[in-house]
Amino acid sequence: MKKWYIANFKMSKEVESEQSIVNYAEKFIPLVEDVEDNVVICAPYIHLSEAVAQFIDTDVLVGAENCAMWEAGAYTGEISAAMLDKAGVKVVILGHSERRNYFGEDNTIVNKKLTLALKYGLIPVVCLSFETEDAFKETLKDQLDSVLKDVSADENVVIAFEPTFAIGTGKALGKEEVKQFTKQIKDQLKDKGYDFPVLYGGSVKPDNAKDFIVEAGADGLLVGGASLDPEKFAEICTCAKD
Ligand code: PGA
Q1: Which of 122, 140, 131, 20 is nearest to 66 (CA)?
Q2: Position 107 in a domain
Q3: What's the domain range around 176?
Q4: Residue 16 within any structural domain of the chain
Q5: Pocket mutation for ligand 1, best pick of 92, 99, 100, 204 (most atoms within 8 Å of C-beta)
Q6: Domains in the chain: how many in total?
């Protein structure tokens, strides 16, 4: 199975201008030319068209960081899954813990977004988040039940788990914990008949990426801060080589 390396630029200062996306692509593309895994750049809405234009002749996929929970209509300020599809976007991050914490998104909302993303042919990266390890064990089954409600096993869905204490803090989980959590999620998915890839996210850096992929068995990585530097992110995308 191809691994997934997903950059999440967020509303970072480094990507305020359109030119920053152009500069990023120029540096990044030659560094990942030989990568056979799935490499995804998730950019702020306003830069998606530019990102699609920059990566058009490459294998790098462009993703959004969110989409609306409604299909179309009078929802001022929202961006629909259909709009993303028409803009050439292929992937969408859904239910990131920052969306859950700051914008009140719950699993029911994430499931609505997921259904629309699939309807419009986008690959959803569904984030599971938890505050503590105990909370993870307690909430995992419910989170999966509700976010994956009515999703059939042949759909193209990616799952990412991110403990909130590891996001943007430099306090990544240890590889043993990532191994354990990955296995638990995979087992639960299997019980439901799914075989979706399971990614880890939270303070992934070039120096810990390989452990998560090679030793902990994660199917990929969701990367915030370190993805803003094209060289660092390219190192992460090539971490499992040889
Ligand atoms: P981080 O963010 O890599 O900066 O911890 C991860 C994420 O929020 O997806």
Answers
A1: 122
A2: yes
A3: 4-237
A4: yes
A5: 204
A6: 1
